[in-house]
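User: Could you check the structure of this?
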Amino acid sequence: MLRERPRRGPLPPVQEHIDKLEKVVNDGNYYGAQQMYKSISARYASADRYLEALDLLHSGACIQLKHGQVTCGAELAVLFVETLVKGKIPYNDENLDRVRKIYNSFPQISVPQHLGDDDDVQQLSEALGAAKTRVEGCTSFLKAALKWSAELGIHKNGSPELHDMLSEYIYSESPEVDMSRVSLHFVRGNNPKKFASTIVNFMGKCYPGEDDLAIARGVLMYLSLGNLRDANYLMHEIKSQVEKSEQLEFPQSDLIQFIIYLLQTLERDALPLFRMLRQNYKSSIDREPAFNEYLDEIAEKFYAVRRRNPLQGVFGDFFKMMGGDVAM
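Assistant: Sure, the predicted C-alpha cells are below.
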C-alpha cells in the first residue's frame, strides 16, 4: 500500500517568516536565508497570497543589501518585481515607494581613483569588480521594475521616477560611465535639472571634446521624443551652472552652435531651415552616428517627415534598452 505524501500545513502569517529569516541573515547565514526566502515566497505566491510573498521578498532584499550581499539582494529584488507582475499588482505611489526603498538599499561606494603600490592595484581591481556587480544587480532590478510600470501603469515608456533612479545609479556607480545610456534614461525621467547637474559634473572629468557631445546628446534625445520644453531647459540650466563654476567653461564648438540654431528653428514651422542646418553642420553632426538618427526622429516629430524604418533610432535604442542586455 502506497503511503500518501504528507501535506503541508496552512501557511502562517508571513511576519513569522520575516522575523525568523531576518535573524538568520543577522547571524551571517546569507545563503541559507536566501534559499528560504525564495522557497517560502514561492509557496505564498502559488497560494495566490501575493501580498504576503511581496512582503517577504521586500524584507529579504532590503536586509541582504543592508548586509552588503548585493548578489542575493538583487536576486530577491528582481523576484519582488516578478511577483508584482504575476500578481498583477498595479503601479502606484505606494508600490513605487517599496521599489524605491529597495533601490536606496543598494550600496553606493566610491571607487578609489589613485594608484600606488601593488596592494593599491589589487584593491582597485577588487573595487572595480564589486562596482560592476552592484551596477549590474541594480540595473537588472530597475529594468524589471520599468517593464512592470509600463505593463501595469500609465507610462508606456515606464515610470519616469524609475528612469531617474536608474540613470543616477549608473552614473554614480559605474566604473566607466556610458553617458549615452545615462542620458537615455534621464530624458524619460522627470528631473531635467538633475540631468543638467550630471552633465556639468561629467564635463569636469571627461576627456577634451566629450563635453559638447554630452550636451548635444541630451538635447537631441529630448527633441527626438518631441520634448522641446525640457530640451531648452537643459541647455539653459547647463549654461547657468557652468557660469557659476570657476573650473568650467561652456564649450563654443560648431556642434553647440548647431544645437543653439536647432532649438531656435524648432520654435517655428521651418523645415527648409532645418534641412539647411543639417547640411551645413554635417561634419559636426557626424561626430556621433546616433545624432543623425535622432535628427530623423526630430524631423518626424516636428515636421511630419516620415522615417524609412520607424523602428530605427531612438525607439530602437529604447527597445534594446528594455531587453536583456545590461552590460555597462
